[in-house]
Write a structure and sequence with these properties.
The chain is an alpha+beta fold. The protein has helices at about 1-25, 40-50, and strands at about 30, 55, 60, 65, 70-75, 85-90, 100-110, 125-135, 135-140, 145, 150-155, 170-175. The protein has one domain. It contains two helices and twelve strands. The radius of gyration is 20 Å and the shape is globular.
Length: about 190
């Protein structure tokens, strides 16, 4: 009876390992890259201007990034065969506004080589653009490319929706050429 239990446990272990390895390689969505591949240095290039342009009130400088909400993607946006980096970021309260003072931003970085090493930069900052807001919320776990456009899905307000809860589904394409290469976080909305 003990050998049957050992066999069952071994079988469960092998099955678990197999299922885990199959699901991990199917997506270009990455759980976490913070601190790896010089990401913080590269991302700082994109976010520098938004941090410098934040408003202040009697309590000090307002707002910043909600870093736990970052979503990372790899997608070849310049057709060179290398997987470029796209990061969805949320910045809150940067204008000292109320609860709705939220912006969704897309930071892009172009891959420099095929072998990403943790000892040298692998990406060059490309753009930093506002692509969503509280009432025009993009699904940060979905991004695709069609020709020279990035494709996003999301939810926006419809008549009768509260500001908290946009419910009208939409799909939009944003030309890659319209991304803000000045890193000012310019609002890009095509709908």
């Amino acid at each position: 009876m003990t050998s049957l239990k050992k066999f069952n446990i071994a079988s469960l272990f092998v099955l678990s390992f197999f299922l885990y390895s199959c699901t991990k390689t199917k997506s270009d969505y990455i759980q976490d890259l913070d601190g790896k591949l010089y990401m913080n240095d590269v991302v700082a290039i994109g976010t520098k201007q938004i941090y410098e342009s934040r408003s202040s009130n009697e309590f000090g400088v307002c707002g910043g990034e909600y870093e736990a909400a970052r979503k990372y993607h790899l997608l070849d946006i310049n057709d060179d065969g290398l997987q470029d980096l796209l990061i969805f970021m949320i910045f809150e309260y940067t204008s000292c506004g109320g609860t709705g003072d939220v912006g969704q931003y897309l930071f892009t970085a172009i891959a420099e080589n095929t072998h990403h090493k943790e000892t040298e930069p692998s990406f060059t900052a490309h753009s930093f653009s506002q692509v969503g807001s509280r009432t025009y919320a993009l699904n940060s776990e979905y991004v695709a490319k069609k020709k020279n456009n990035l494709i996003f899905k999301g939810h926006k307000l419809r008549d009768g929706d509260g500001l908290c809860c946009p419910s009208k589904k939409f799909k939009t394409e944003i030309p890659i050429s319209s991304l803000d290469k000045t890193f000012k976080g310019t609002w890009i909305k095509k709908d």
